[in-house]
Q: What sequence folds into this?
């Protein structure tokens, strides 16, 4: 695998880009093991070749997947809980989205600092 195209990308930019990529992948692939199988053989070695911490890459994966599970309609536990509570999905999404966005910004900042420091 060649990481030459990303060799001059700062760790902070790579961290934010990886988080965005994992957010998209988490929405498309709701299975955590399926997403790990698809992405980790590429992203883990890529981080290592760029001289970045592979542990932080795993944290980025976990954070992005967990953030998406807070509101994705393919997460059965969420939909079951909303059905039991008699709360419509659209009402729930309108309520939770500001919190999810804020949490995403804070977590991305923490992960970016971790990627730069480690």
A:
């Amino acid at each position: 695998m060649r990481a030459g195209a990303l060799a001059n990308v700062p760790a902070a930019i790579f961290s934010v880009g990886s988080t965005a990529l994992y957010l998209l992948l988490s929405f498309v692939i709701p299975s955590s093991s399926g997403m790990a199988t698809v992405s980790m053989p590429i992203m883990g070695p890529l981080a290592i070749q760029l001289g970045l911490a592979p542990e932080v890459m795993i944290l980025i994966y976990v954070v992005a997947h967990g953030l998406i599970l807070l509101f994705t309609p393919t997460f059965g536990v969420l939909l079951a809980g909303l059905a039991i509570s008699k709360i419509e999905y659209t009402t729930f999404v309108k309520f939770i989205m500001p919190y999810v966005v804020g949490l995403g910004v804070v977590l991305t900042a923490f992960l970016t600092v971790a990627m730069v420091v480690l």
Q: What stands out?
A: The mean pLDDT is 88. The CA atoms of residues 4 and 50 lie 9 Å apart. The two ends are 23 Å apart (CA to CA). Residues 9-117 form one domain.
